Amino acid sequence: MEGKKAIVDRILSDAEEQAKSILKDAKIRKQAEQDAARQEAAEYLEKSRRALKSEAENQISRRETVAALDCRKLLLQAKREVLESVIQAAQKKACKMPKEKYLKVLEKLLKENAENGDEIVLSESAPVGEREVMALAVCKERKLSFAATVGKFSGGLILVSDKCDKDCSFEALFEANRNELEEEIAGDLFADKK
Length: 194
What we know:
- Helix 1 crosses helix 6 (178-190).
- The chain contains six helices and four strands.
- The chain has helices spanning 2-95, 99-113, 130-134, 137-141, 170-176, 178-190, and strands at residues 119-122, 145-146, 156-160, 166-169.
- It is an alpha+beta fold.
- 72% of the residues lie in helices and 8% in strands.
- It has a four-stranded mixed sheet with strand order 2-1-3-4.
- The model has no long low-confidence stretch (mean pLDDT 89).
């Protein structure tokens, strides 16, 4: 019986050793799997952080671009408003010129635009009247006449003929030259002073 007991003990001992070995291998595999899972999680986390950082930088860049564009739009709008107010102020100032200067401007307009027989419509707010305008040499030379009515425009004159009317009001002159005026004013006002 002793031989049987030794065989049984030996079998049990081998089985126990084998169970310990299997358990040890299982623990090693489990540890390796956990380590691999931790490594994979760490890599995924790092990859996610890089992706989030990149996305955040892209969003910040886009928002900075949009903000810069919005600033430029606001600045441009403000500049346009300033240009418009300067042009309006210049037009008002032109309407309030002293008589002599106003008369010289009208004379120049007549020399450049009037044709024989045209009728002159003067602005209702003009500081000069029919007598002063008709005393100009160009009126006699081109046989110009004075309209019975005055115009409801801020300054300057309108030439009326049977062929066509010519708007030489200050409003029309400023509008016709708006691009050059805006360019010149913007150059004076907004040029970078270094």
